[in-house]
Structure formats: C-alpha cells, structure tokens
Amino acid sequence: MTSVTDEEWITYKEKFNKNYKDEAEDKMRRETFARANQRIEEHNKKYEAGTVTYRMGHNNFSDHTEEEISRSRGVRTGH
C-alpha cells in the first residue's frame, strides 16, 4: 500500500475544505486518497514519457471511493 505524507494529506484537506466525522473516516479517506495519488503518479510518468497526452491531478473526488464516484455520476452499482 502506498502512503502519503502528513503534509500532502493536510494540504489536500485544506485545499478542498475536507472535514471528516471521526478518525476512522479520516483514515479511510486518507487511504483512498493515497491510492488515487499512486494512480496519478503512475499516469503522469506516462505523460512525461509521451505515451499519454494529458496530465492528471487531484480534485475534490480524490478521497472518494470508486462506488461513490459512480453514484455521483448517476451510475448504479449492484442491485
């Protein structure tokens, strides 16, 4: 599992005005953010190598699960 520094996590939360109900949710969101961070870093290495045409970055959804993102787009998951 990849991790992010305390500074990266605090900076993200401040930039996107993130507040969580308790430490357990903060931990879960940080882990989700760390996975997104890893995907972004891997993608941007491809960008630097010229194998993809766009750069990725964090946004308000970087701490959301894939299921939450799908729901926000109106995609149903499971029945």
Any descriptors?
79 residues; Helix Hairpins; 3 helices; Papain-like_cys_pep_sf; Cathepsin propeptide inhibitor domain-containing protein
Written overview of the protein:
By secondary structure, the protein is mainly alpha-helical. It has one domain (6-72): Helix Hairpins, CATH 1.10.287.2250. The protein contains three helices and no strands. The protein has helices at 6-15, 23-49, 66-72. The mean pLDDT is 94.
Short description:
This protein has helices spanning 6-15, 23-49, 66-72. By secondary structure, the chain is an all-alpha fold.
How do the strands and helices of this protein lay out in sequence?
Blueprint (H helix, E strand, L loop, with lengths): L5 H10 L7 H27 L16 H7 L7
Count every beta strand, where a strand is a DSSP E run of 2 or more residues.
0
CATH class: Mainly Alpha
The CATH topology is Helix Hairpins
Radius of gyration: 14 Å
Please bin the fraction of helical residues.
55-70%
- How many domains would you count in the coordinates? 1
Main beta sheet: strand number and arrangement?
none
* First-last Cα distance: 30 Å
